[in-house]
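Components:
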Amino acid sequence: MPLLRRLAASLPLMVSLALVGCASDGGGGIQSQKLATIKARGKLICGVDGKLPGFSFVGSDGQYTGLDADVCKATAAALFGDPSKVDYRDLNSSERFAALASGEVDLLSRNTTETLSRDAAGGNGLSFAPTTFYDGQGVMTPNASGVKALKDLAGKPICVESGTTTELNLADRMRELKAAYTPLKFQTGDQTYAAYLQGRCVAVTSDRSQLAAKRTSFPDPAGHTLLPEVLSKEPLTPATTNADPAWADAVRWTIYALMQAEELGITQANIDAKLAEAKANPNQADLRRFLGVEGEFGKQLGLPADFVVKAVKATGNYGEIFERNVGMGSKLKLERGSNRQWKEGGLIYSPPFR
Amino acid sequence: MRTALPSSPLQRLRRELFSSPLDGLISIGLIGFLLAVAIALVKWALFQAQWAVLQANSTLFAVGRYPLEQQWRLWLLTTLLVGATGLSWGLLRGLPRLDRVDQLWPRNDRIAVAVVLALAVLAPLFLKLSLAIQLRWWLEAALLVATRWAAGRWALRIPPPARRLVPLIWPLLYFAGMVLISGGLGLIQVSPSEWGGLLLTLVESSFAILLCFPLGILLALGRRSELPLLRWSSVVYIEFIRGAPLITLLFLGQNILGFLLPGGLAPDRVWRAAWVLTFFAAAYVAEAVRAGLASLPKGQLEAARSLGLPLPQALIHVVLPQALRVALPATVGQFISLLQDTTLLSLIGLLDLLGTARTVMANPAFLGRNAEVYLVLALLFWCGCAALGLGSRALETRLNPTANPAR
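Structure:
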């Protein structure tokens, strides 16, 4: 019975697929099976971690929350004008690429590091969107220790989880700095942080986002600081598959739109005013095109003309998403660091909307 | 049977704990140790633990992301279940087996009622539920006790033909419950991806338990069949499943089906997991049932056949009732481990009780509150497993053919 019902339910989808397949040859529309499937389904299926503080977890109200979840919401808003039209799938790290490749999820927004082998067609064949969080290995010290930079740790004990790349990165960097140190190695993360809290070492090292998450559970979170140095590159990036470049473009430019909105000072609060301003003022061609008042940006991507407005309205611009979920507005209290806008010396950079 | 010495409680205490100096030393050591643990636990629970993580997320733990405006369906289902439980419980006590003497309100039942009432009063206070929801739990508890009382009181007035129909309310209720949970028949569909917490754990485990039992019986019969093809396919199936860890089968179910069937056509991952659990448990149940079948003397089947019963009837009326009674404890043991195995679903990304716990612990507002969450989770699972165990022992007693088995 359920199979029959499912078949019946997917009939309109197949018909519309066939129609789209025929129709899109003619006009200026774009050809994307995935976009057509998602639109026919009426929901975006988004793969997330679901258990990662600040990135994706289910809040007490039953809503998915976090930076990764907000990427899903913004994309759904760009597609449907409604950030709630998302089906979340919690994926673990071993099944995430399989789920994307088999089409179980449309979009993978699950703190995935962009690497060559994951991107390459001969590797995992992913298509990476813009990086939404530049993570990397960091070092945390108690404020009282007086350590201000990595080189201050010379001759001091550092807690590290044994057998991890973290341990190797630390050794490499300290050798570069010609700073001898004493590594205190532990089998598990819990042991490492417990030793750090007992004062057996003056620093602990792990990914910066993880350090920040751990810090919130310390008795005195404000008494610990992340050093400014970043020891490794972990660009956490949403991804789709190589199979559908048009869909990948739609995701890519939705995320760029969030970054561009921050650069232009467009926020969740003032988006309506900005839109009114753009509509009233024919001279502001750039703003008018960005917000979809004129031009064909939306159409070229296969999205509604006002997709930027809808996305920013749903989640706010990139800076707002960052601050709310992992930045100073959250319990994680991460500095923007590399995740600042390019004009402020960061790596967040949207190509022009032209 | 121990010979009972007449004694006051004090004398008994002395005899059991302090009968020799060494006994006394061991007793004092153990009592001191247990006291220290209990005091540390109570101290932690009262002064260190922050129970807000459970108070703020109680809905999440109960039903997951089930939409708020549809939750009345779950309340309706709970009410129906509570009513049916009270009814069945009362009838079981009111209509004892003809060859047994049974009290209408044995001591165990009085304790159970006291526990239910105490839970209904204390649990909402602990979880700081809103008054409206607190009131609902009180009404549910009152309904349970009332139906239990009424069914016990008037059990004998129900005409015998109607009595036979009473067990049918359970399968009916199961289907009604599935419709209420998932939607259909005019109700809005609630996608399984929005089920979670205790609700998902119960749906998955009850589905698997109900289906793996008949499947296991068929497999056990197949394994003892004289048709080589049937026998060998049963053997291969059972040994394949028993040779693979459940988690690998769960991953297979999640990933392979996605590749085999085009997107959207594969059953939802909640149901994929439920089927995998079912097929997994069936292999183990089959072995338990096979042990039951093997314990029967061959003469039973031969006698039934020589009386002219066709094979299916001989199996259904003679062999299986005896074999299943033998297999019951092992089968229920399998059900209990199945209930615990549902926690593996959190590893394939479903929000069962453990999955919900893990996502709640990732909420920056509750980071580091692992001990509180895991303790309550352990308690919940213990209650579920204890209930299954108690139920199976009651069933064993009821099915025991001797007239008045020693309790």
